[in-house]
Amino acid sequence: MRLILSCPDRPGLVAAVAEFLASRGLNITDVDQHSSEAGRFYMRMVFEPPEADAADGLASDFNAEVARPNEMGYRLTGAGERRRVVVMVSKPAHCLRELLWRFDGGDLPGSLVDVISNHPDHREEVERLGIPYAQLLSEGEILERIGGSADLVVLARYMQILSGDFLERVGCPVINIHHSFLPSFAGAEPYRRAQDRGVKLIGATAHYVTEELDAGPIIEQDTARVSHRDELGELVRIGEEIERSVLTRAVRAHLEDRVIVDGNRTVVL
């Protein structure tokens, strides 16, 4: 199982959690933690799951004995859970293909259960892998299709802005890949405008989607050096490579419960 928590920093937090698990005969197999300058403590701990008859009371006991006295926000998840992922995509295919390959090969710890697009272009490629594909144009149709069945929605270059109503009703986090090292060159034709400015770095940003456009908590970023010798096509190729890599790392971090959202920022353990 995984325990992910955040709380005000103080001495003895790791010991309190470890003693609670040890008292129930549960062995810790992995732990990562961080204390911020702002006085917050973050931790991700993996431990062997309890016997079935002891599992039900574990969360309530932890809440009473450890979480509440230490003002912890926390969640307990099963390390072996196969979370259901829905991908939304428009015409650009590079991020979709990376996710198809990663999920099909078992490289990402989840199940890709549906692909939704506002174009028909990728149907054959997706359905060949036995994954359902739907061409839908309205948010209402998409919400009806998902129907609360997703644990995560990934925008793999989905070129439509989602409304606040959609984000509230979809019932799970939404991750987007942005074609720049935010906030630079947001909007259309970023590589052409980057070329016009003679940039020396291009990059990509994966973030959680909020109602404020491209302003959600950042999960993962990366950059690559470019020069005046790189023509537009080469900039696009390099940029798409970064987008694929950054999005994959962000999705993996989320599915492995490595991301703790704290306001408008994240701690990735």
Radius of gyration: 21 Å
Shape: globular
Helix content: 25-40%
Approximately what portion of the residues adopt beta-strand conformation?
25-35%
Mean pLDDT: 92
Spatial gap, N to C terminus: 16 Å
What distinguishing features does this structure have?
globular; 33% helix; alpha/beta; single chain; 8 helices
Describe this protein's structure.
- The structure is a single chain.
- The chain is of the alpha/beta class and 269 residues long.
- Helix content is 33%, strand content 29%.
- The chain is built from eight helices and 13 strands.
- The chain has a seven-stranded mixed beta sheet with strand order 7-6-5-8-9-10-11. A four-stranded antiparallel beta sheet has the order 2-3-1-4, covered by helices on one side.
- Helix 3 (94-104) runs parallel beside helix 8.
- The longest helix has 24 residues, at 232-255.
- The two termini are 16 Å apart.
- The model has no long low-confidence stretch (mean pLDDT 92).
